[in-house]
């Protein structure tokens, strides 16, 4: 049996700024809550153009960027990810399926620059 249900709220003349997803299409269940920064141009600007011009328009205009996601994974883990204005994950708080917890700070390149508890070497 498969089930997927989204709920989202759009900014006026723009796309989603808040999204809740629940997915049971794979073994286990995934639930995600996301907050998204949307650009300041109306979506109708791109829709007025012929489809062939959409790729150029989208390359030259800012795109939506996820800023915060909270998720439960099919394996039972849960995490919170905070992202910068470019949509890059910068802080992760995670509790694994067996209760092990971790806090990670990530650099601009996505690599972990600090972690609690510290990784064992």
Poorly predicted ranges (pLDDT <50, ≥5 residues)?
A: none
With helices defined by DSSP (H or I, 4 residues minimum), what is the helix count? 2
The tally of domains stands at 1
- How would you describe the shape? globular
| Major beta-sheet overview | 8 strands, antiparallel
What does it look like?
The protein is mainly β and 121 residues long. It has one domain (4-116). Helices cover 10% and strands 45% of the residues. The protein has helices spanning 43-47, 54-60; strands spanning 4-10, 16-23, 30-37, 65-72, 78-83, 89-95, 101-106, 112-116. A hairpin with a 5-residue loop joins strand 5 and strand 6. The longest helix has 7 residues, at 54-60. The model has no long low-confidence stretch (mean pLDDT 88).
Pick out its properties.
mainly beta, 121 residues, globular, 8 strands
In short:
The chain has 121 residues and is mainly beta. The protein contains two helices and eight strands, in the order E-E-E-H-H-E-E-E-E-E.
Please outline the helices and strands:
Blueprint: E1 4-10, E2 16-23, E3 30-37, H1 43-47, H2 54-60, E4 65-72, E5 78-83, E6 89-95, E7 101-106, E8 112-116
Antiparallel strand pairs: 1-2, 2-3, 3-4, 4-5, 5-6, 6-7, 7-8
């Amino acid at each position: 049996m498969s089930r997927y249900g989204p709920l989202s709220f759009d900014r006026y003349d723009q796309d989603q700024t808040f999204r809740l997803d629940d997915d049971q299409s794979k073994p286990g269940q995934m639930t995600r809550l996301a907050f998204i920064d949307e650009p300041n141009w109306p979506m109708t600007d791109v829709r007025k153009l012929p489809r062939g011009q959409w790729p150029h328009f989208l390359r030259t205009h800012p795109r939506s960027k996820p800023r915060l996601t909270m998720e439960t994974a099919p394996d039972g883990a849960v995490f919170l990810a905070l992202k910068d204005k470019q949509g890059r994950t910068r802080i992760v708080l995670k509790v694994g399926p067996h209760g092990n917890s971790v806090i990670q700070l990530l650099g601009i390149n996505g690599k972990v620059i600090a972690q609690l508890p510290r990784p064992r070497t």
